[in-house]
Amino acid sequence: MNKIYSYLGLARRAGYVVSGEQAVQGGVKRGQVALVLIAADASANTHRKFSSLAQYHNVSYLVYGEKTLFGQAIGQSPRSVLGVTDRSFAKVIRAQVGESVQ
């Protein structure tokens, strides 16, 4: 696993990750989520739903990774969507995704 998944695991253990569609949706609406991560292999409906939700609530979102790797990183079953609630973790993960794309 690369650094991004390691940071997600750390954030999960620290209690800064919400996972699953309903939890992330609720967190975004309540203003608790700083970054939404959408798995690249999630359905088109999930991509559309969460990118629109994040844009409407002025929350950063990234399309990155795979559902199975998201689940492995946080010690759960495959997840299409994750929300990072801590701004510092969100900033680091955003930077790491930027580096891995280049």
Give an overview in words.
By secondary structure, the chain is an alpha+beta fold. It has a single domain, classed as 60s Ribosomal Protein L30, Chain: A (2-Layer Sandwich), CATH 3.30.1330. Helix content is 56%, strand content 15%. It has 5 helices and 4 strands. A 4-stranded mixed β-sheet has the order 1-4-2-3, sandwiched between helices. Helix 3 links the parallel strand 2 (35-38) and strand 3. The protein is globular and about 30 Å long. The protein starts with a helix and ends with a helix. The relative contact order is 0.27. The mean pLDDT is 92.
CA radius of gyration is: 12 Å
The CATH topology label is 60s Ribosomal Protein L30, Chain: A
Distance between the termini: 18 Å
CATH architecture descriptor name: 2-Layer Sandwich
Helical proportion? 55-70%
Q: How many separate structural domains? A: 1
Structural class: alpha+beta
β content, as a range? 5-15%
The spatial strand order of the largest sheet comes to 1-4-2-3
CATH class: Alpha Beta
The largest sheet is: 4 strands, mixed
What best-fitting shape do the alpha-carbon axes yield?
globular
Mean of residue pLDDT? 92
Uncertain spans, ≥5 residues at pLDDT below 50?
none
The CATH superfamily is identified as Ribosomal protein L30/S12
Order of helices and strands: HEHEHEHEH
Q: Report the count of strand segments.
A: 4
Number of helices, counting only DSSP H or I runs of 4 residues or more: 5
